[in-house]
Specification:
The chain is built from four helices and 15 strands. It is α+β, with helices and mostly antiparallel strands. A hairpin with a 2-residue loop joins β5 (62-65) and β6 (68-71). A seven-stranded antiparallel beta sheet has the order 2-3-13-10-15-8-7. A four-stranded antiparallel beta sheet has the order 9-14-11-12.
């Protein structure tokens, strides 16, 4: 399952640790939505990537699209509230994020969804997380990315410019406020050389 990863020149360490969240920076997107971004939050992220790529029980899914059933262009895994996460560092990351956003979010992050983008052909189409509580109330989704950077694109649902953030090698992005219902996001396919990437999405209870 493991794909070849071109390691980051800025992350040449086997010591897995989280940097302080003090350096996180917020960008207001409009319509009550915002993103917080912290590049390189995780030190030693290439080590974590290799562990997740090899040890997570990845599954391929097929979904109905129009009049046919197609392969989902990425591999998936999900850990519900109370499920042990596949590496202690992810438990630490979730607890750290829950503490940092405790006052603003008002509840902890409880679940973790993982996506494995094997190469530039894997992707996720434009969508908003509008199933569950995010469809009608403000919430947060925190995404930790390890592996080769891929662009995360965001755009307002009623039209407007696109925001682009390359994420990988331990980068953190938190989508908050009304982002899940007033903005869409995607990871587009790319014809450029793209190595493998794993994203870990931490969500509160009932947010999908």
């Amino acid at each position: 399952m493991t794909r070849h990863l071109q390691g980051s020149l800025f992350d040449q360490t086997d010591q897995l640790r989280l940097r302080p969240l003090d350096g996180i920076r917020r960008t207001a997107l409009g319509l009550g939505a915002w993103i917080d971004v912290l590049p390189g939050w995780l030190c030693g992220s290439d080590t974590l990537f290799e562990h997740l790529a090899a040890e997570v029980p990845w599954r391929a899914e097929r979904r109905k699209m129009y009049d046919q059933v197609v392969d989902v262009p990425r591999l998936l895994a999900f850990y519900g509230a109370g499920d042990p996460l596949p590496h202690p560092l992810l438990t630490e990351a979730r607890e750290t994020l829950s503490a940092h956003y405790a006052e603003e979010l008002g509840e902890p992050f409880t679940t973790a969804g993982l996506c494995f983008y094997r190469d530039g052909r894997d992707s996720v189409a434009w969508h908003g997380d509008r199933i569950g509580r995010g469809a009608h109330e403000d919430t947060m989704v925190a995404i930790l990315s390890v592996g080769t950077p891929r662009d995360l694109l965001l755009r307002p649902t009623d039209g407007g410019g696109t925001v682009r953030r390359p994420l990988g090698h331990g980068d953190l992005i938190v989508m908050g406020g009304s982002c899940q219902r007033t903005w869409e996001h995607s990871v587009p396919k790319t014809t450029h050389a793209a190595g493998p990437r794993v994203s870990i999405q931490f969500r509160p209870h009932g947010v999908r």
